[in-house]
Specification:
Number of helices: 15
Shape: elongated
Low-confidence stretches: none
Strand content: 15-25%
Largest sheet: 11 strands, mixed
Order of helices and strands: HHHEEHEEEHEHEHEEEHEEHEHHHHHH
Radius of gyration: 30 Å
Distance between the termini: 32 Å
Length: about 400
């Protein structure tokens, strides 16, 4: 025990000997591991929709492209298929609140059936009742409400990039999800309100939806129901493509796969750079203390002990930088999210990301010490004693 205490004291003193150098190295480690954590958080946020997809939920879209609509009349025919428990439909609105910076996801939905298909939506009875009976009513996710200060009863206007004119809505309530990890950044309003207005403003866009959502209840029904739906509309003017919600989300992610790959590559390049900096710092430190290490070997300490001193110092510095970076990552992600709410309305740093940051810090500490350890362990006592730092 005494030997271990002595070893730890030597490691601590060595780490604090050149305080300016170690401070700069620590600063570099903090910035690198913090950046790594933020980039990994962006990637995990982009994949969040895949992780929270409901296995028994199907998405039905136009077989040619998601950008092409489907007739809303398909709903009745889809509902008649054996195995379908409930079906709803959704249209992307693409509205802007006040200015181009205030963009968030908005969907026109069939309110009653949408809430049936999405039991995970948590909405008060009063808000639900108000939403269902108010033609201009809308429900807003908690993240959006907190960001813009929306509350029940507020009247807001959105200007759509898809549908002509300005649109006025009344906030019926704020909703959450049963799983707190699911992003609540959606704005939902009545498709009937949209459609009735389109019949007056833009007849060609009326009576159409972007996609249908179907709940089949049991996983063993998915294949049969999917085939039945696509078979029903085969050779029609608007053929369908049916897939699971997870596959649908994966399709969106694949469209940005090159961007995600670039982000992932950058995150590891950042770590490689700080590894090089850390390795250079430890090499300089070992070279300056070569006489001291040779003296320790001369009085009886083995090469292994000297090597462990270098490794211990490197790990202590790396873990200290990693710990500070991990503590700063959640507030940094929140700050980043405020200025990028359109793309990343909810940047939640997961425990797995923090664990990965800690593992990366430890790995940097170990790898940075390997070359200096090997050099010091192999140097002869005589050569070490006459070395000049």
């Amino acid at each position: 025990m005494q030997g271990m205490n002595q070893f730890l004291k030597l490691v601590a003193r060595n780490a604090l000997r050149h305080r300016l150098r170690m401070s700069l190295t620590l600063a570099g480690l903090v910035v690198a591991i913090l950046s790594f954590g933020l980039l990994q958080t962006i990637i995990s946020t982009w994949h969040a929709g895949i992780d929270h997809a409901v296995p028994s939920r199907l998405i039905i879209r136009n077989a040619v492209s998601l950008s092409l609509p489907l007739p809303v009349a398909y709903q009745k025919r889809i509902r008649s298929i054996e195995g379908v428990r409930s079906v709803t439909y959704v249209s992307w609105f693409g509205g802007i609140y006040k200015n181009e910076k205030n963009f968030f996801p908005q969907f026109a939905v069939d309110a009653k059936s949408y809430l049936e298909v999405h039991p995970e939506i948590r909405l008060s009875d009063e808000a639900r009742s108000t939403f269902l009976r108010d033609r201009r009513g809308a429900i807003v996710g908690r993240n959006i409400a907190n960001h813009f200060g929306f509350k029940a009863g507020d009247v807001i206007q959105l200007r759509s990039m898809i549908y002509p004119g300005s649109w006025e809505f009344v906030i019926s309530g704020i909703f959450d999800f049963s799983d707190p990890n699911i992003d609540t950044s959606q704005f939902l309003f009545h498709w009937n309100y949209l459609n009735e207005t389109l019949r007056l403003r833009s007849r060609s866009q009326a009576d159409q939806v972007n996609f249908f959502m179907v709940d089949v209840g049991a996983l063993d029904r998915i294949a049969n129901v999917s085939q039945a739906i696509d078979g029903m509309f085969r050779n029609s003017a608007a053929e369908t493509h049916t897939e699971t919600q997870r596959a649908f989300q994966i399709g969106f992610v694949k469209q940005t796969e090159a961007i995600l790959l670039s982000i992932r590559t950058i995150s590891f390049v950042v770590i490689f750079i700080i590894l090089a900096v850390m390795a250079n710092t430890m090499a300089m430190t070992a070279r300056e203390r070569l006489v001291e290490y040779a003296t320790l070997k001369a009085i009886g300490f083995g090469p292994g002990y000297v090597g462990w001193l270098i490794l211990g110092e490197s790990i202590v510095v790396a873990l200290a930088g990693g710990a500070v970076a991990i503590m700063l990552t959640p507030p940094a992600a929140a700050y980043f999210g405020v200025f990028n709410s359109a793309l990343f309305p909810s940047l939640n740093v997961s425990s797995s990301t923090m664990a990965l940051q800690g593992a990366v810090a430890l790995l940097v500490g170990v790898l940075a010490a390997l070359v200096p350890m090997q050099r010091v362990a192999s140097v002869r006592i005589v050569d070490g004693l006459r070395a000049v730092g």
